[in-house]
Amino acid sequence: MQNGPAVRRRKLGAELRTLRTGAGLTSGDAARLVGWHQSKVSRIETGASGVKPADLRLLLDAYGVRDRHLRELLLMLAGSQDTGGRHRWWHAYRGVLPPTYRDFISLESQAGAMRTLETTVVPGLLQTAEYARAVTRAAVKDLDEERLDTLVEVRLARQDVLRSDPPLVLSAVLDEAVLRREVGGPGVMARQLERLTEAARLPQVRLQVLPFAAGAHVGLTGPFVIFSFPSTSDLDVVVLDQLTSSLYLERKEDLKAYSEAFKTLQFHALSPEESLDYIAGIGDGA
């Protein structure tokens, strides 16, 4: 378990090592091609140090990497703001957002797909402004109105990933408790349920409800997010949100365990069509 930047360095290094060996080069060969010392290549591949976007381009050229999407993803992981991908808008909020939240938004903006289990609140990407305000006010104590407004603004800005080209593909399993918990009052909750219904009809969103009748399930240990990236599954990561930080799991066995858990949750949850009816029933007071 590591923080976001460390995970990205390790994953970037591992991918570069795979690309180098695929090109039939040793680390010494790569160093000579780009005019570096071999130790620099080794430090980058082990994640011990980061790599500047300009240096990364040199490596990718030396390895014969022409895939535009893969280059953009790797450049984003290296910290480039000029990749042709989704705009790094959250940098404007550096003074307001804690580093762990910025890391999460960064991964969210880079990912091609996101699978999430939510057991307490509606996923941030599907929240209305008033629901987001109520959740944020409850979760973060002693907020003044200006900072609260900013955090809600950030929450809504994150939702642009669902409207980008290509959009983030979102698969969400919601425990029934998410729908039953009255956040912000009856009116706020009614409009939030309407928003979920609208979002569930988007082609890039798959929304399923896990009803109380399903009984105990693997997700009782808590919510989680799995980010998947275009071009390579080696960059996938699991994020576990904690009260004051986030944990990132990158080992293949962890990814496999959480992926299988999510499949199990989807199997026991209502189908997307049944989930729409279920949400409508709760909205009608059922």
Could you give a quick summary of the protein structure above?
This protein has 286 residues and is α/β, with parallel strands linked by helices. The chain has twelve helices and six strands. It has a six-stranded mixed sheet with strand order 3-2-1-4-5-6, sandwiched between helices.
What do these coordinates show?
- The chain is of the alpha/beta class and 286 residues long.
- 50% of the residues lie in helices and 12% in strands.
- It has helices at 4-22, 27-34, 38-46, 53-62, 68-77, 99-110, 129-139, 145-158, 176-180, 186-200, 252-268, 272-283; strands at 113-118, 169-175, 205-210, 224-228, 237-241, 246-249.
- It has a six-stranded mixed beta sheet with strand order 3-2-1-4-5-6, with helices on both faces.
- A hairpin with a 4-residue loop joins β5 and β6.
- α4 (53-62) packs antiparallel against α5 and α10 runs antiparallel to α12 (272-283).
- The longest helix is centred in the N-terminal third of the chain and has 19 residues, at 4-22.
- The chain starts with a helix and ends with a helix.
Which key features would you list for this structure?
single chain; 286 residues; alpha/beta
Low-confidence stretches: none
List the helices and strands in order. HHHHHHEHHEHHEEEEHH
**Measured distance between first and last alpha carbons:** 42 Å
What is the mean predicted local confidence, pLDDT?
Answer: 88
Enumerate how many helices there are, as a single number.
Answer: 12
* Strand elements, count: 6
Largest sheet: 6 strands, mixed
Protein name: Transcriptional regulator
Pfam families: DUF5753, HTH_31
Domain HTH cro/C1-type: 16-70
GO molecular function: DNA binding
